[in-house]
Specification:
The protein is an alpha+beta fold. It contains 15 helices and 28 strands. Strands 1, 2, 8, 9, 10, 11, 19 and 20 form an 8-stranded mixed beta sheet that branches. A 7-stranded mixed beta sheet has the order 6-5-14-15-16-13-17. The protein starts with 7 loop residues before the first strand and ends with a helix. The relative contact order is 0.12.
C-alpha cells in the first residue's frame, strides 16, 4: 500500500492584497515554497490605498518590481499642504524630489494597477502557488507545521499544510482569531467618505495634494494615481453613515469643487471608519500576522499600506534564514518587538495629524490656525512632536553594557555607486540582503575565515567604498554618499540589514569583528539544526496538492 502524504509548503499566506503579494514575491524569489490563499475569486479592481513613500519604493525594488511600479505611479512634484478656508498655509511638507532611499519621496497610485504589477511578477515564479476563491475555514498548528482547512467553490473542502502561516488577511483576520494575542486600541474613531474619481479632462491641479482644514467640512484632496483624483470628506455630527454613503451625497460634496457627472466619473465611494490600534503579539508559534491584521491607523500620514509592506520585508528576511537553517526560530520573536514600536510611531504621527485636521469647533480651529501660522507652516514646529521612526529592540548592535547601542535601528540611505564600470543604486549592484559597507578594503583583513564563512552563509555582501579610483572589487562612492557620513561619525564600517535598517557600526578592525560576532549571536545561529522539514521521497512528492 502506497501511503501518500500531503505536501508541506514552507509558508502559507492567508490574504493576497499588496502585503501578501510582496511577501510571496520576496519569499518566492528566495527559493521558498509558498502558497497564497485568497477567499475572493477575482482581484478587487477598485481604488483603496493611494500613497507610498521612498522606503516602500525601495521594498518594491527589493521584490524585483521597482521600475514596473514606478511606471504606474504619480510622484509628488512639490509640497503636501494644509490650508485653512482663507487659503493660508498651516503646514507645508516638502515631498519633492527623491528621498533617502533613492526613489521619489512620495508617490500616489491606483491600487489595482500596482496589484497587477505584483500579480504578474508572482505568476512568473515557479516557487509560488496562488489559489483564489479559496477561503480558509480551519486552522490547526502542531509541532512541525500548521494544517489549514480550505473551502473552494470549485473543489470543495481541502487541506493545506505549511511550516509557517502568515495572516495578511486584513482587519478582520481569521488567522488572528486563532491566536491568544490582545489588541491595544487607542479609541480614535472618525468616519470619512472616500470618493475616487476619474476626471474626463487633463488638468493641472494646484496644489496637487492638500488638506482643507475647514471646521465646516474637513476635506482631503489628493492624487489617486495618474489620471485620477481622490476627495475625502469628514462625516459631520448630524450626518449618519447611511446618508453619507449615497451617490447623491458624493456628487453634492464634489459639486463645489467643479466636479459633475458631465466632467467626472466616480469609480468608488465608500465610508471608512479610521481607527488606531495594534496587536500586542504578532507571532504565536508558527502563526504570524502582517499588515492590517496586525495594526490599523488613520490615513493622514499615508502610512497604512507602507507599514504593512515594512512588515513583509522584516518578516521575509527572518523567515528566509530560519527556513534555511541559518537562524533559530526564536529570531522570529524580534519581528513583534521591532515592528510594533515602529508602527506605533506611524500610528502616533497619523493621530497627531488627524487631531489637527478633524477640528469642527470654529474657535478651536481659529486657535489652531494662529498657532500653526505663527510657526511658519514648518511641520517641525507646527505639528505635535512624535517619537522618531526607529525599530524597537531586536536584531541590533549592543553597547558594552548589553543595552542597545546608540544610533542603530534607523533607515539607511541608498545611493548610486559604481562597481566594475556599472553605476546603479546600491541594492541593484549587491542584490540586497545584509550589506557590510567599509571605508576601503583594508579593514576586511580583520575578519577571519569563520567571520567570512558566516557572512557568506547569510548572504551578506561586502562593499569596500572609495572616494575615487577603486581597485578591482571596490565600489566608487557617490558624491556626498556613504563615506562622508561614516567619517563624520568616526565609523569605518556599517552593517545594514536586508530591510535597510542599520544593525550597527565599527570604529576599527577589532570592533568590526565584534560587530559580526554580535550579529551571529543575535541570529541565534544553530550549530547543526534546521527548521526545514526534510523533503519527501519522490514517491511521496507525487501526491502534491
Amino acid at each position: 500500500m502506497n501511503t501518500r502524504h500531503p505536501k508541506v509548503h514552507d509558508v502559507a499566506i492567508v490574504g493576497y492584497g499588496p502585503v501578501g503579494q510582496v511577501l510571496a514575491l520576496l519569499l518566492g524569489r528566495a527559493g521558498h515554497d509558498v502558497i497564497a490563499l485568497e477567499r475572493w475569486p477575482q482581484p478587487y479592481h477598485l481604488p483603496r490605498a493611494a500613497h507610498f513613500d521612498h522606503e516602500i519604493a525601495r521594498i518594491f525594488q527589493a521584490a524585483g518590481v521597482g521600475e514596473q511600479v514606478n511606471a504606474v505611479v504619480d510622484p509628488v512634484p512639490d509640497h503636501y499642504e494644509w490650508r485653512n478656508p482663507a487659503g493660508q498655509a498651516l503646514v507645508r511638507m516638502d515631498w519633492s524630489g527623491n528621498g533617502i532611499s533613492g526613489w521619489p519621496t512620495a508617490n500616489f497610485f491606483n491600487q489595482p494597477q500596482v496589484e497587477d504589477v505584483l500579480t504578474a511578477a508572482v505568476e512568473s515564479l515557479s516557487t509560488v502557488v496562488v489559489r483564489r476563491g479559496c477561503e480558509v475555514t480551519g486552522l490547526q498548528p502542531d509541532d512541525e507545521h500548521v494544517r489549514l482547512t480550505t473551502d473552494n467553490s470549485d473543489d470543495g473542502t481541502g487541506e493545506v499544510r505549511a511550516r509557517y502561516v502568515i495572516g495578511a488577511d486584513g482587519a478582520n483576520s481569521f488567522v488572528r482569531s486563532h491566536m491568544a494575542t490582545t489588541v491595544t486600541d487607542l479609541g480614535f474613531f472618525y468616519d470619512w467618505l472616500i470618493v475616487d474619481t476619474r476626471p474626463h479632462e487633463q488638468a493641472e491641479w494646484s496644489p496637487k495634494n492638500w488638506q482643507l482644514c475647514d471646521p465646516k467640512r474637513p476635506t482631503t484632496i489628493v492624487s489617486g494615481g495618474p489620471g485620477r483624483r481622490r476627495w475625502e470628506f469628514l462625516r459631520l455630527p448630524h450626518e449618519s453613515v447611511e446618508e453619507l454613503s449615497t451617490p447623491d451625497m458624493a456628487w453634492r460634496l464634489l459639486e463645489p469643487w467643479g466636479r459633475t457627472p458631465d466632467n467626472t466619473t466616480i469609480e468608488r465611494h465608500t465610508v471608512y471608519t479610521f481607527q488606531a490600534c495594534w496587536v500586542d503579539r504578532w507571532r504565536e508559534g508558527r502563526l504570524v500576522l502582517a499588515g492590517d491584521a496586525a495594526h490599523q491607523m488613520p490615513p493622514f500620514a499615508g502610512q497604512g499600506m507602507c507599514s504593512g509592506l515594512r512588515d513583509a520585508l522584516n518578516l521575509a528576511w527572518k523567515l528566509d534564514l530560519v527556513l534555511n537553517g541559518r537562524a533559530d526560530p526564536a529570531l522570529l520573536d524580534t519581528y513583534t518587538s521591532e515592528r510594533s514600536d515602529h508602527v506605533q510611531h506611524a500610528i502616533g504621527m497619523s493621530m497627531a495629524l488627524g487631531q489637527v485636521i478633524c477640528v469642527l469647533d470654529p474657535d478651536e480651529a481659529a486657535a489652531r490656525d494662529a498657532r500653526m501660522i505663527a510657526a511658519g507652516a514648518d511641520p517641525r514646529h507646527a505639528l505635535p512632536p512624535t517619537p522618531p521612526p526607529l525599530l524597537g529592540d531586536g536584531v541590533l548592535q549592543r553597547a558594552t553594557d548589553g543595552t542597545r547601542a546608540a544610533n542603530v535601528g534607523h533607515l539607511t540611505p541608498q545611493y548610486a555607486v559604481t562597481h566594475q564600470g556599472r553605476t546603479a543604486l546600491l541594492d541593484d549592484l549587491t542584490g540586497g540582503g545584509f550589506t557590510l559597507l567599509t571605508d576601503g578594503a583594508g579593514l576586511l583583513d580583520a575578519l577571519d575565515a569563520a567571520d567570512r564563512d558566516f557572512l557568506t552563509a547569510i548572504g551578506a555582501v561586502l562593499v569596500p567604498l572609495y572616494e575615487d579610483g577603486p581597485p578591482p572589487g571596490g565600489y566608487l562612492d557617490a558624491p556626498d554618499g556613504y563615506l562622508p557620513h561614516m567619517r563624520e561619525h568616526g565609523h569605518v564600517a556599517a552593517l545594514v540589514r536586508p530591510d535597510f535598517y542599520l544593525f550597527g557600526t565599527a570604529t576599527d578592525g577589532l570592533a568590526l569583528r565584534e560587530l559580526v560576532a554580535q550579529l551571529r549571536e543575535q541570529l541565534h545561529q544553530p550549530a547543526a539544526t534546521s527548521d526545514r522539514v526534510p523533503a519527501p521521497e519522490p514517491s511521496e512528492a507525487a501526491a502534491e496538492e
